[in-house]
Every structure is written in structure tokens, then in C-alpha cells.
Design a protein that fits this description.
The protein is mainly β. Helices cover 0% and strands 49% of the residues. It is built from no helices and 11 strands. The strands form 2 sheets. Strands 2, 4, 5, 6, 9, 10 and 11 form a 7-stranded mixed sheet that branches. A 4-stranded antiparallel sheet has the order 1-3-8-7, with no helix packed on it.
Length: 125
Amino acid sequence: QVQLAQSGGGSVQAGGSLRLACTASTPTWSSYCKAWFRQAPGKEREGVALVDSDDYTNHADSVKGRFTISTDNNKNTLYLQMNSLKPEDTAMYYCAVKNEVPGRACDYDGTWHAWGQGTQVTVAS
């Protein structure tokens, strides 16, 4: 059973930066699809960024150029570097992992079998 532990949330002013981290307890961390999601009150959960086992990344249009997803497989850790933060980025952020299907690129759909506990990101205008 994979367990994910998050850290790095907080409150910043618009234009500021935060770095989220998600550490997994698993010997096969590098083989998973890994992603960051966020959910604001009254809104649906949305995918923010994802990365596959070959380190290919995909970022949502709303954060492209501002957020960067990355991994440190030696530490079994997933990161989300968030720069130029906007008030609309305010949400609860979650990391998640799922098994990577051979021959298929990672995407946000399907069942993510492990989730972090969530961390609040608040951006003041």
C-alpha cells in the first residue's frame, strides 16, 4: 500500500512562490504516473500537472509557464514549484499516484490509487 505525505503549503501574496512536496513510501515510486490536483470550495477537482516514469510532464493551461512538476526518484518525492501565484490558484492541493499502463501516456482520468492528505495554498490579492 503506497502512502503519500505532503508538505509545503501556506499563504502568500499574489506574485509569490511556494513549493509543494509529496513523499511516497514505496520501493517502486519511479514506475508510477504521478500528479498534482487541486480543489477550491464549490468547484470540481482539477488536474494541475502530471509526470510519467520517463519524466515527461504535462501542465494545465491555467498554470503553464508558472508551475513546474518534477521528481526526485532517489528520494521518492514529487514536487510542484509554483511561481507567479495568482488568487485563482487558491485551493487545496493533493498529490496522487496510479499505475502506468504500458504504451499509454499518463493522464488525469481513471483511478488514482493513493492520495496525499492535502495541503492548503492561499494566495492573497
